[in-house]
Design brief:
- It is a single chain.
- The chain is an alpha+beta fold.
- The chain is globular and about 45 Å long.
- The N and C termini lie far apart (47 Å).
- The model has no long low-confidence stretch (mean pLDDT 89).
């Protein structure tokens, strides 16, 4: 008998323009169930990483996500 949950991660690969930093959002389904990729990206553009992660979680709570909510936002340096 197998106990527990498994998940198939959803991810995209997006080419980065040379010389420009990028933002990485890692979040659980409690966030993605109520926010689109575009909505989450818009939030991260407004502020720094720490505040953006907090704002993403608050946005999911405001939209009454029924799941746990975790978000990490990081800026990737230009390459």
């Amino acid at each position: 008998m197998q106990v527990g949950a498994t998940a198939v991660p959803e991810f995209t690969v997006t080419p980065r323009p040379a010389g420009q930093p990028a933002t990485l959002i890692v979040a659980c389904d409690g966030l993605w169930d109520v926010l689109s990729n575009d909505e989450a990206a818009a939030i991260t553009r407004r502020t720094d990483c720490t505040d953006a992660a907090e704002e993403l979680v608050f946005a999911a709570v405001e939209r009454e996500s029924g799941d746990n909510i975790t978000a990490v936002v990081a800026t990737l340096p230009a390459v």
